Amino acid sequence: MFEVLARCGAARRGRLTTAHGVVETPVFMPCGTYGSVKAMTPEALAAAGTQMLLGNTFHLMLRPGDERIERLGGLHRFMNWPGAILTDSGGFQVWSLKSMRKIGDEGVVFRSPINGDEMRLTPERAIEAQRRFGSDIVMVLDECTDYPATEAEARASMELSALWAERSRAVWERSEVGERRLFGIVQGGMHSGLRAESLDRLTDIGFDGYAVGGLSVGEPKAEMQAVLEGLLPQMPEPKPRYLMGVGTPEDLLLGVTLGIDMFDCVLPTRNARNGHLFTSRGVVRIRNARHRDADEPLDPECACPTCRGYSRAYLHHLDRCGEPLGAMLMTGHNLHYYHGLMARLRACIETGTLPGLIKRLQEDWSQDEPV
User: Fold this and answer.
1) What is the pLDDT of residue 234?
2) pLDDT tens profile 5-40
3) Could you tell me the pTM of the whole model?
4) DSSP element (H, E) containing 323
5) Chain centroid offset of residue 9 CA
């Protein structure tokens, strides 16, 4: 399923084999919450360099429903995406809907944000839904720990996630899983001892890969870095490592240098729709008045269709008018940038030149436009 091909320090250049293709790692996965990446066709995603994308179990269970998706041929066919798909378990959405849910050992009871109906999500139900989707990588149900959280609060949350991981694995072993793979999720808040204990319990259960959850939930970057620096050296060497929901370019550099293989985040697509664009010379904020008459490409060093064919002035105009084409062009650019960044990181891990690339990138990014 996964092999490490090269290393540069703790950074890993790997290859993940799925039923829907080979994924070169480190890899960034765009978020297709409702079975689509906003403002992008599947063809445009592939052209931008997408290898694998993320689907949202919670939202897809509510609309259109996992049984309907299964009847229509599974998520790949439903959304016309031929590549690999990882689906999360719904745990993060349960956390974000804390005012609408009740959590117990059995699972979560919540009110649908769509129509208010009472819904139930258990470890077994989350696995079943993802099986119906036909996901290549399936995530166990977990509880995302609040920030800040006392050690006692974080322990209670971690213990619940560990219990759910055991039940997720049990139902997985009773299911027809084929070439799909199941990942466990390390929790424990900002407490290094709890993180280590969570990882030990997950490795005792045994999973095909291990994710780090419960970060990018409001904590300072220094705390996130401390958690990763303490945890990653303990993670199983031959298994893929996935950092959930973390994704500024700076975060990707940090994660890769520490040994992360997989990332996802809404940031490049959401930021694109808000005129916040990543370039080889730092962030461009296309809504700034300076771009109104700028007859120049967004990024002269970028080969994406947006930069080859459209000026900053035109993107500024589309954004100011709220034209859907603006969101499409800018989202395509941001994803092209992210995937290009990951390709450069992979190449430099292979050649042992990663530190030099990171230094150059950090110098380039220091040129961000002011808000």
Assistant:
1) 98
2) 999 999 999 999 999 999 999 999 999 999 999 999
3) 0.97
4) none
5) 24
Query: Could you give the CA distance from residue 361 to residue 351 in angstroms, rounded to a whole number?
Result: 17
* Confidence bin at 246 (pLDDT 50/70/90): very high
Omega prior to 64 cis, within 30 of 0 = yes
For residue 88, indicate whether it is catalytic: yes
Beta carbons of 259 and 12 less than 8 angstroms apart? yes
Dist. CA 344–CA 12, nearest whole Å? 13
Strands (E), the chain: 2-8, 11-18, 21-25, 27-29, 31-32, 52-55, 84-87, 101-103, 108-111, 118-121, 137-139, 181-186, 209-212, 241-243, 262-264, 276-279, 282-285
Mean pLDDT computed over 241-264: 97
Distance of CA 153 to the CA centre of its chain: 26
Q: What number of helices (H) and strands (E) belong to the chain?
A: 15, 17
- Active site residue: 66, 142, 264, 319, which one? 264
Q: How far apart are CA 167 and CA 123, in angstroms?
A: 6
- Model confidence at 356, pLDDT cuts 50, 70, 90, reads very high
Kindly report the three-state secondary structure assignment for every residue of 73-84.
Answer: CCHHHHHCCCCE
Three-state SS annotation for 155-215: HHHHHHHHHHHHHHHHHHHCCCCCCCEEEEEECCCCCHHHHHHHHHHHHHHCCCEEEECCC
Catalytic annotation present for 264: yes
- Active-site residue (options: 66, 88, 136, 299): 88
* Amino acid at position 246, single letter: V
